[in-house]
C-alpha cells in the first residue's frame, strides 16, 4: 500500500503515526513539511482530501495563531495563507492512502485508512 505522511520528526504523535504505518508493512513517502512547506494549491488539495473544516487543520496553541489574527471564523483562504506563511501552524501528522486522508490525532484515527 502506498502512503504519504506529513511529518514533523520532533512531534511524538507524528513519530507514533510513522511507527504505526511501518508496523503495517508500509514504507510511506515522508514529507517533512517544515523543511518543504506546502503551497496554497497543495493545502487546498489536502483540505479536500481530509474533508474537514479548514480551522481543524490549524494548531491553535501556536504563537503564530494569535500573531496572524486567526480565529475559528477565519476563512479557508486566510487559513491557507497563514499555513503558507507559518507551516508549523499545520496540524500533524497527516496520512494519505488510497482509502483517504486522516489527521493522526489520535494516532488510531489512521487505522481507518489502512
TrEMBL record:
PROSITE patterns: ARSC. InterPro entries: Arsenate_reductase, Arsenate_reductase-like, Thioredoxin-like_sf. Its EC number is 1.20.4.1. GO terms for molecular function: arsenate reductase (glutaredoxin) activity. It comes from the Bacteria. Keywords: Oxidoreductase. It catalyses: [glutaredoxin]-dithiol + arsenate + glutathione + H(+) = glutathionyl-S-S-[glutaredoxin] + arsenite + H2O. Belongs to the ArsC family. This is Arsenate reductase. The gene is arsC.
Amino acid at each position: 500500500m502506498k502512503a504519504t505522511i506529513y511529518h514533523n520528526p520532533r512531534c511524538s504523535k507524528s513519530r507514533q503515526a510513522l511507527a504505526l504505518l511501518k508496523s503495517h508493512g508500509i514504507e510511506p513517502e515522508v514529507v517533512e513539511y517544515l523543511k518543504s512547506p506546502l503551497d496554497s494549491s497543495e493545502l487546498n488539495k489536502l483540505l479536500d482530501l481530509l474533508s474537514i473544516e479548514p480551522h481543524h487543520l490549524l494548531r491553535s496553541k501556536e504563537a503564530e495563531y494569535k500573531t496572524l489574527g486567526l480565529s475559528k471564523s477565519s476563512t479557508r483562504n486566510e487559513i491557507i495563507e497563514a499555513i503558507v506563511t507559518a507551516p508549523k501552524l499545520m496540524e500533524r501528522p497527516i496520512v494519505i492512502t488510497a482509502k483517504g486522508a486522516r489527521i493522526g490525532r489520535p494516532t488510531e484515527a489512521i487505522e481507518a485508512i489502512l
